[in-house]
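Q: what does this look like with 1,5-di-O-phosphono-alpha-D-ribofuranose bound?
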Amino acid sequence: MDNEFPVKFYEIVEGIKDMRIRGAGRIARAAVNALVIASDSIETGDVDEYIRRVKNAAKILVDTRPTAVSLPNGLRYVLNKVLSDYRSGVSSVDQLKDNLKKYADDFIKISNEAIKRIAEYGAGRIEDGDVIMTHCNSSAAISVIISAYKAGKDIEVYATETRPRFQGRLTAKMLSDAGIDVTLIVDSAVRYFMNKVDKVVVGADAIAANGAVVNKIGTSMVALAAHEARVPFMVAAETYKFSPDTLFGKLIVIEERPYTEVVPEKWLSDKPKIRVRNPAFDVTPPEYIDLIITEIGVLNPAVFPFIIRDRFGVFYSELEPWEDS
Ligand code: RI2
């Protein structure tokens, strides 16, 4: 590993890669924070040099995990604004550093505020007495469930354990710490329990231009079981989970993680005919999704991309600000 940036920067990079820092929203905030650390460490009075090195830091961060679009979107938010300042003639490195820090703070604030709004809007869709199923560990989905509970609704949750990394245990702990009754189930018990469930709420790592949701592996099976049982399936996601690249025909890359997360290396070592695959995410088609709960409102998946495009505007030239133009 090179040492162009401070140790703390690389700790965040490695933390995102090996999932000590995980959850799409948290990854984005951590990456933006790491960009500030890198920016502050650049010792030069030459703005061109500064911009080149900040872009390099963003490139290192964007390569850590390929699927959660919140990560590039957070970096895009900050970097595009800094590049715009640079192009419009800001010629002091210190000024650009200050601006970058401010834009990063803005993004983190937007991100935290979004979760509060989602919690508020989503809780409105949960009724007293509801049994809710969730998959993996999404701060957006959990905020909806806890907010409904705090509003006085008597609810109960089924949480899948979420193989192979068992993020469901985190979810069960977080919800039970909030006072909610939780049943932890193996992923393959989803259909078995679906007839006891009133609503499913999950998070998202990315939402495509057709309204399809990319989330933790197994989500599409939960959606299928919910669809069959006529159980409403809701996704809680900040608008920066929308993948602008998909508007321009690009596909969301599904991360495939090491097989050692599934079986021990030793177990596989004497079985040459066995291959273990470990995709971290899958795609749930919009037909199986009833609602997407965002900070700008509760949306039907079909209209989601249009609203996002109209509201925020997406320009092809701004998609990869870390690349040299
Ligand atoms: P929030 C997670 O990915 C899960 O797939 C979760 O549903 C999604 O991010 C959204 O999480 P991973 O980092 O942003 O565990 O809602 O692979 O917290």
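The longest helix spans residues 93-123. Residues 22-26, 136, 138-140, 167, 202-205, 215-216, 280 surround 1,5-di-O-phosphono-alpha-D-ribofuranose (CB under 6 Å).
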